[in-house]
Specification:
This protein has 244 residues and is mainly β. It folds into 2 domains: 3-96, Tumour Suppressor Smad4; 144-236, Tumour Suppressor Smad4, CATH 2.60.200. The protein is built from no helices and 24 strands.
Length: 244
């Protein structure tokens, strides 16, 4: 059973089972999880279970913010993973018993795609095709990370690997530079047809999505902007298209 362990200064206070599809956390007594502290808003944060069996956390415009693995989150959905730590005021809620849902198998890649992450050449795109019968083959259009700012400005990187690394090290797939940028600063993970970004850098560095610092397993959406050091990228996710 999935549960949240409420702690204060490493001391366990209470344990909550997540039995509903939507859990509201806050100071008000009508909430599902009540934290009676003046620094906690009446309705502070919300956890939602989606159809695919994953759980997502969002802030409810609280006064003092909601944190996931040390990074402040906004009012959009942020995926929870086993062991994730939710920070509310001086309290922590640790996720336990959350197994990963079965991954949706990715659509078959084209021969070019198996080469991994590479610079995307817009000139090689095929024009949109007319709809074909369901039995006809389809080709994958992998997401692209387009560099908006930094040394690689204008470059486009295809995100087709299981894990894509960003940073200033020689082993990364996508280079990023700037003050406090780590060798392996962030990673983008592919799970089925979903993509998640996680911060790998130290406590004094950050990875931001749409201006908000993220922690682990932040789900990426089309046109999300990623900031690392002096570099910024836009995540472009196109739907699959039929081949000619």
């Amino acid at each position: 059973m999935i549960k949240l362990i409420l702690k204060l200064k490493e001391t366990q206070i209470e344990e909550f089972a997540l039995e509903k599809d939507q859990i509201v956390i806050g100071r008000a007594k009508e909430n599902d999880i009540v934290i009676d502290n003046i620094a906690v808003s009446r309705k502070h944060a919300q956890i939602t279970r989606k159809e695919e069996g994953m759980y997502y956390l969002r802030d409810l415009n609280s006064s003092n913010g909601t944190f996931l693995n040390g990074a402040q989150i906004d009012a959009s959905d942020h995926a929870l993973s086993e062991g994730a730590v939710i920070g509310i005021a001086k309290f922590e809620l640790q996720v336990k018993g959350l197994s990963k849902p079965a991954a949706v198998p990715p659509k078959p890649p084209t021969p070019e795609d198996v080469e991994g992450t590479m610079i995307f050449d817009p000139g090689r795109r095929k024009p949109a095709a007319e709809p074909l019968a369901a039995s006809e083959p389809r080709t994958v259009r992998w997401p692209v990370l387009s560099a908006l700012k930094g040394p690689a400005k204008g470059a486009e990187y295809k995100i087709s690997k299981e894990v894509t690394l960003l940073g200033k090290g020689s082993q990364v797939d996508i280079p990023a530079e700037g003050w406090r940028v780590s060798s392996s600063h962030a990673k983008i993970t592919r799970r089925g047809d979903r993509f998640y970004i996680s911060h790998l850098g130290g406590f004094f560095s950050s990875t931001k999505v749409n201006g908000i610092g993220i922690g682990q397993d932040h789900i990426l959406k089309n046109k999300d902007q990623i900031e690392i050091g002096n570099c910024s990228f836009v995540f472009i996710q196109a739907p699959p298209e039929h081949t000619d």
